[in-house]
Design goal:
Strand 4, helix 2 and strand 5 form a beta-alpha-beta unit. This protein is 32% helix and 24% strand. It has 3 helices and 6 strands. It has a 6-stranded mixed sheet with strand order 3-2-1-4-5-6, sandwiched between helices. The protein is an alpha/beta fold. The mean pLDDT is 93.
Length: 122
């Protein structure tokens, strides 16, 4: 029996970014699931297991990325969190929460990091 594709939770405040990452990730054989960050809350998916989380760092919200990361840990305690940012390095306030870092605009690095995080978790 074939195994199901890994579930990747994409957390961003911009639905267009979620759509773009969904398209890229699905092409590589992953199952993307979106979670939109609103001004004071996150619109979480209904249910399901999550294998890895992609979390945008700069959120246009009252919520910060570290706050959202803590929410992720409560909902999906075993899922690694990979931080996406246009910054060239992992921001200091995310170090205690992140399992990895990916600079935006590097799709090959993103796919490699996703595959590595999923392999480490299985």
């Amino acid at each position: 029996m074939a195994s199901l594709p890994p579930n990747v939770l994409i957390i961003d405040d911009d639905p267009l970014h979620i759509t773009l990452y969904t398209w890229m990730i699905r092409r590589e054989g992953f199952n993307p699931v979106g979670a939109v960050v609103h001004s004071n809350a996150v619109e979480w998916p209904e249910k399901g297991e999550i294998d890895v989380v992609l979390l945008d760092y700069r959120l246009n919200s009252a919520l910060t990325a570290p706050q959202v990361a803590r929410m992720v840990r409560e909902r999906y305690p075993t899922a690694p969190i990979l931080v996406l940012s246009e910054m060239p390095w992992l921001p200091d306030d995310m170090r205690p929460h992140a399992d990895g870092f990916i600079s935006k605009g590097e799709p090959a690095h993103l796919m490699k990091a996703l595959a590595g995080a999923i392999a480490a978790g299985r």
